[in-house]
Amino acid sequence: MYRTIHVPTFRAEYERYWAGPQIADGSFVILLQLCMAIGAAFQDNTFSIRSSACHWVWEANLWLTLACKRHKISITGMQILCLLHHANDITNMSSDLSWIGAGTLLHTATHIGLHKDPKFFPGMTVREAEIRRRLWATVLEIVLQASLDSGGTPPITLEDYDTDPPANVNDEQLVNHTDPALGTDPEVCTEMAAQLALLETWPARLAVAKAVNSVRSTASFDRTLAINSDLGTSLQSITQRLVKFHETGGITSFQLRYAEFTMHRFFLTLHLPLLPQALQNPLFHFSRKMSTDASTRLAAITYLTPESRAFLATPQATLSDWDFSRLFLCGSGPYRATQPQLILTLAVDLAQSLEKEPRSHYGAITPGMAEARSILQSWHELRRERLRAGDTNVKAFVSTACMLAHLSGLEAARWSKSEHDKMLREAAEDAAAECIEILQGMAGVNSSETGETGEAGLMLDTCQTLDLDDIGDFDFLGGGEWDDAMSSDLCYPVWAAQLT
Prior knowledge:
By secondary structure, the chain is mainly alpha-helical.
């Protein structure tokens, strides 16, 4: 998706590595290991080589600590920093500190002049210039995504750089290329098409991050509408182009879904600050609708709707489709944090509809409510699969079980509060017991054994010491601290106090 590495150059280095591993350059070995760490998440549905991937990421961090300055502050060093950021998001190693790492990445890129267009550096070859432009485009994307993940203000503006977009060419065209007049037509499909499409929308997405995350930012409805219009225009422009490329086989479904995921995530982020008001005031209904629409769209993109999950079992599903689904099954960072945001949005909207809207004689559940309910159920199943893939977030699984039980109680609309609380407690206990069984199976112990040590033992301790009272007072769908929810995984104490 991001052309961080020039593939022909990498392949040549790869062949030299196998010809003489003992004399291979240490920086290339780190680069190779980071590529393998990222790819490890796509091997199977259980992230079976997670430990090796984490070890490779750890070695990359050690190399950055011990390597001399000339190795780190270089094009190869920048490539390692970019890949390390993605590997952290995959393996969940320091993914919660991505904004700090992105700041280091930006400062390093600026230090070696990536923010200045290569035309200002005489004597630079076409290939070198394009690699610098590609790296800068990747840095911009990482910095913006990290800002969204952490809730921090973007540390860069459009006035801080003058680097032109990369040329719309394939990697092979940069080998021995001497003509500075490279491809600029965005309607031509190349290996750069997906990254260039996202780069085209970068200014509109930057406006979202600044509006939402700036220290003195206020959730102005008029300002939100203006930004939404610009973002919608950008989305329409690149979607039509990328869909056409996908239909002709120019880009993979992974690239198309990743671009759509990135764009719709910003729509959700833009309207979430206004959702508390929108739930109470019809004047802000547009933000409520945009939040739920973006959440539903994100659910479809990330295989949380029944239709999208069923598609994976059909012969039409390609390896690229499975790879994208595994990104959210095994990955961390934005791939784990975005789904709780859309689930919280749909759950709160559904709960309020069940509580406040009049019931018809056809029943409480409308088609829209049924779709939201099915997405929540798919999310619960995905949390179970994530546990089997090595995730240790037990509270998320237990809390989701309680959320579904709470919604069932609202649908029934006939239970007393004591009966409702009892049902929630039973749902939490059943979910916690299931977590223990899953984690014990992963640790290779019988359900009667305790006192395990090591990583598996720590996972068991997490389950066995789970205090259900920590989950809250079962007033689940009453509200949320949306600033915290923007950068944290699903945890009910975060959002059980505001939207009442």
